[in-house]
Amino acid sequence: MSNLTVATWNVNSINVRLGGVCAWLSAHRPEVLCLQETKVPDERFPVAAFEALGYEVAFAGQKAYNGVAIVSRKPVTVVRRGLPGDEADAPRRLIAATVEDTQIINVYVPNGSEAGSEKFAYKLLWLERLRQYLLADFDPKAAVLLCGDFNIAPEERDVWDPKAVAGKVLFHPDEHAALERIRTWGFIDAFRLHSPAAGQFSWWDYRAAAFRRNLGMRIDHIWVSSPLAERCSACWIDAQPRAQPSPSDHVPVAASFR
């Protein structure tokens, strides 16, 4: 086992944000960066830009929507794309790989649009399929890390105003129940091991000066199995990229392990 820092970031188009992502990698040098919403087909993924920084890349993308990738300074092995049973043209929302002794599952959970809609039902079904995948293919006694844009704020302290968002998508009881079923597989929220305070967010709407007013939600997560929780020395949100020109509406979340 060696020291490992894993970050996750919904970049809202890798080609639009490539300069900022590369600058962040150069400044922070995590061993692994998991990306969501890359919005690029595989043949157009900017592999060379990451290789120039000493990273290799595994990805699963599609034109204009979705897309996930794992960028790593260490060898990436046992790469798996999508959930079992996915059709060939299914949205690209999951990529899993092994880095040294750690199994990393990078997800872009469906947004759900609005409570009660067909897209909301699809989100809940997708989360249940993720749970079944975990039960069938992963062991909570091993080093397993689940990260990405979950599109769910788990608790009241994870949203700017619990009353304002109660019952809405991203903070709905049905989403909380689905997420809790995944947590009981054996996951621990790495961020909450180190930062119990409310008002710490990873996403802010582009509208209504939400970032300046800190009207955000913590919907980007790093969850770990018990063996990794014991090794977790830090977990933090880096809000600085949100203040840069043409930012993603999400910011990086990172965790370090001894």
From TrEMBL:
Cofactor(s) this protein cannot do without: Mg(2+); Mn(2+)
GO molecular function terms attached to this record: double-stranded DNA 3'-5' DNA exonuclease activity; metal ion binding
Active site: Y108, D149 (proton donor/acceptor), H250 (proton acceptor)
Sites marked Important for catalytic activity: D220
Gene3D superfamilies: Endonuclease/exonuclease/phosphatase
Site residues, Interaction with DNA substrate: H250
Keywords, ordered alphabetically: Hydrolase, Magnesium, Manganese, Metal-binding
GO cellular component: cytosol
Free-text remark on how the cofactor is bound: Probably binds two magnesium or manganese ions per subunit.
Keyword field contains Membrane: no
Binding site for Mg(2+): N10, E37, D149, N151, D249, H250
Endonuclease/exonuclease/phosphatase domain: residues covered: 7-250
Site note Transition state stabilizer, residues: N151
Pfam families hit by this protein: Exo_endo_phos
Protein name: Exodeoxyribonuclease III
Protein's UniProt keywords contain Cytoplasm: no
Family: Belongs to the DNA repair enzymes AP/ExoA family.
Example GO biological process: DNA repair
Coiled coil: none
